[in-house]
Amino acid sequence: MTKERIAFVDYIRVIACLLVMVVHASEQFYNMGPVSQVATEDNRLWVSIYDGFFGRISVPLFMIVSAFLLVPMREGATMSQFYRRRFLRILPPFVCFLVLYAVLPATWGGFTWEEAVEQLKMVPFNFPQWGGHLWFMYPLISLYLIIPVVSPWLERSSAKDERIFLGIFAFSTLTREFCTPNVLLATFGAFLLFTCIEKAPRWINSLAKLTFGMYLMHIFFLVFIAEWIIGGNVARPLLPVWLAIPVIGLLTFLCCAVTTKLLSLIPGSKYVIG
């Protein structure tokens, strides 16, 4: 039996994945070299637009989609069944890419083999040098851990109980770095806009299935694409900054889509790309 696709959810996955790559593309214009700084005022403007304006909703959209699809749990599903299904899907690829980011760059001189061994030893405790974006996996794991607890409560809670919970959550946005009121409102608004989509073409459905693997691997492509377009000078890249950032993000997205699709044809690839 084929699982029915939800059109707007597939669109969210694809757009949010692209936005993540655009955010990381913009970071290349202030995070290159020993000191993080913006080289020019032009860089500052476009980094703030792509990173601070368009891109901030990307990760929250991923989290909302996960909760939307999984809460409430399927009737009759147990906590152990839920954990087994979800964690078998995300943990093997997560561990695989932790190891890849710790070791693979040493093959082309990204760092020394001695550094690779040290990073590999630290995998249980910290991200590899190239794998900082994998921080997203920990909030996702936390979400999965709490869903079997929250789901039964939602089935029994009153509207008043839910309003109290939402009020506490809204208050917490005043104390966080990432989940701030403006990000919350922008994400909520974007989500509502996406819900107006009723149909999605087949290529969007196909891309949506690949986004987890694309997210995991994208830094491998982005770093080299950014180096090529920036040309060694963030103040004077080969393309104007307003164009360079989305081009880096889009080329990274396309490379990841093709690579993930090819890997998906290999038996057992779900343990690598989800």
Rg from C-alpha positions? 20 Å
Give the CA-based shape. Answer: globular
Number of domains: 1
Helical fraction equals 55-70%
Descriptive labels:
11 helices, mainly alpha, 69% helix, 274 residues
Question: Overview of this structure, please?
Answer:
The chain is an all-alpha fold and 274 residues long. The protein has one domain (7-90, 134-273). The chain contains eleven helices and no strands. Helix 1 (7-27) runs antiparallel to helix 2 and helix 1 (7-27) crosses helix 10 (241-264). The radius of gyration is 20 Å and the shape is globular. The two termini are 20 Å apart. 29% of the residues are buried. The mean pLDDT is 90.
Layout: helices, strands, pairs:
Blueprint: H1 7-27, H2 41-54, H3 58-70, H4 79-103, H5 113-122, H6 137-156, H7 159-172, H8 181-194, H9 202-230, H10 241-264, H11 270-273
Helix pairs in contact: 1-2, 1-3, 1-9, 1-10, 2-10, 3-6, 3-8, 4-5, 4-6, 4-9, 9-10
